[in-house]
Design a protein that fits this description.
Elements (H helix, E strand, L loop, with lengths): L12 H19 L7 H13 L8 E7 L2 H4 L2 H15 L4 E2 L2 E2 H13 L2 E4 L2 E4 L9 H14 L1 H9 L4 E4 L2 E6 L3 H12 L7 E6 L1 E4 L2 E6 L2 E6 L18 H18 L3 H17 L4 H13 L12 H12 L4 H9 L19 E2 L2 E3 L5 H15 L11 E2 L2 E3 L4 H5 L6 H5 L3
Parallel strand pairs: 12-14, 13-15
Antiparallel strand pairs: 1-7, 1-8, 2-3, 4-5, 6-7, 9-10, 10-11
Helix pairs in contact: 1-5, 1-6, 4-5, 4-6, 9-10, 9-11, 9-12
Length: 419
Amino acid sequence: MRPIVASIHAPATLLSQYLNDLLAPIYLFEARATTFTNSIDVVRRLKKYENDGYMTAKTQFIVTDVKDMYTMIPRQGALEALAGFCIRHSKQGKIGPFTIDHIMKIARLILDTNTFVYNDTYYRQIRGGAMGSAFTQVLANIYMYQWEQHLIAYQAAKNEIFGRYLDDILMTTNGTMDEMKQLLERVGNKDVNIKINYQIDRTVDFLDVSISNEDSRLRTKIYHKPAAEPYILPFTSTHPQHIQRNIPYGAIVRAVRICSNLPDFHSELCHIDISLLLNGYPPNFIRKQFNRLFQSTPIVSMLDGMNEQSYRQLHHRLLHQPTRHEQQLKKMMINPIESPSVLQPYVWNKQIMFPHYLFDHTRLGQLRRAFMDWWSKHFAFPDSSLCEVKVRLVGDTQKTLEKFLIQKKPRRELLTKME
């Protein structure tokens, strides 16, 4: 067994998030060419590799896993890598309003407060970082970016792919098996703190994508772990209906983006359909959400009338359509050193108001009508300055059973008697 320190809601949680938001856009700006942001990004890179003519009948894929990356990075080595990273990307010795010395002091403070209680005894983590600390991710990425430079240069010289998502690495090769094994063995012995496991084959699973080379043709489809249960948010759960609507819609959009051919898409469609039915979603509700995608695209009007050619057009269009997360990352990478996005003031739109309420599906219609009547009568009446304000009611989900059963804090005696 291996203990994992989450450190969620720890004393330095907000400071950790702040430092991550300051440094992560700069890291991604520098390492974007060798960093995967999600599974869709993986498929895009592989498609480009194929279209550029680098995929041949002997092309193989290499999947590498860094063992216990967050907890095994050395503290001093990671801080030295962080200092070098800040020096390279600072302007007049600063990143935003902070000097490099300030950033290093904040980093040490976050690492020094990784504490937890076990068997009525306090412990402090002295190696790596807490799994639930946002700063741990960017610190590990900076350390790994320094470690992987040899692999990046080797792959670039041969026009091959190198990409990493956290502790998972994907590479392509047209070389021999012995050549790549020797390379990976040398890299694996480079740093005693970084241990890797690797697999080299024509068919591999990376993140949630199954990747195959079929006679120099790329084939991708969704990969489901054997131990994964077909469990999603039950339809009877007390959540706003837009969440339940977006679950099947988001699943089918993801399937179109990742599955490169029509038979694999149909197979994934059956998997989604069965999973939804098992979790209580009505068949008509599922069909309606499935049709949302095909009704919104000019390529196909109906799912039943789709052929291989029309599916490939739809796959290509959605694959290269940026996700919401990617759009946010793109904004964050605009001048991240002089004007970090985390320091930009939030501009409130005074024409929209978002009142929150505790969601309950049994009184949803009555609550909305009652609220709008009350709003119109007492605030947005004729000649009121609030007539132009639009109201968007936001339903907050109720507490889950987990919130009531899990006790995360130590006993009060341990919190007050620290000696």
